[in-house]
Amino acid sequence: MFFFFVGGLQQEVRQVLKSGVSKCTYCGNSVDLVNSDKVLNLFFVPVWRWPAKDPLFHCSYCKNFSSYNYSLPPTSESPAAVAEALRCRFCDREVEADFRFCPFCGSDL
């Protein structure tokens, strides 16, 4: 038996909360803060719709959705602060930045 499925998930704007809040990270145009719905389409027909958890930024020009909580990393960090962050403060050994505990002594980083 052969089954052919044409469907997918997409996001749609449900309600605009605030217009012109920020700039789009992709095209540079202004974005709106929106509540959105996730929609399951089956053969290009919306079958199921449920609300997204958090508000999102939506660019009406490039149709991009981006997270409302997105923030760029700090740009001006001193090299000493970076070097200190990559060392355990108890055993003074180098650890990778994504570790939460020191692999050598087990202390919380």
UniProtKB/TrEMBL annotation:
<dbReference type="InterPro" id="IPR031493">
    <property type="entry name" value="Zinc_ribbon_15"/>
</dbReference>
<dbReference type="Pfam" id="PF17032">
    <property type="entry name" value="Zn_ribbon_15"/>
</dbReference>
<feature type="domain" description="Zinc-ribbon 15">
    <location>
        <begin position="23"/>
        <end position="106"/>
    </location>
</feature>
<protein>
    <recommendedName>
        <fullName>Zinc-ribbon 15 domain-containing protein</fullName>
    </recommendedName>
</protein>
<dbReference type="InterPro" id="IPR053281">
    <property type="entry name" value="Double_zinc_ribbon"/>
</dbReference>
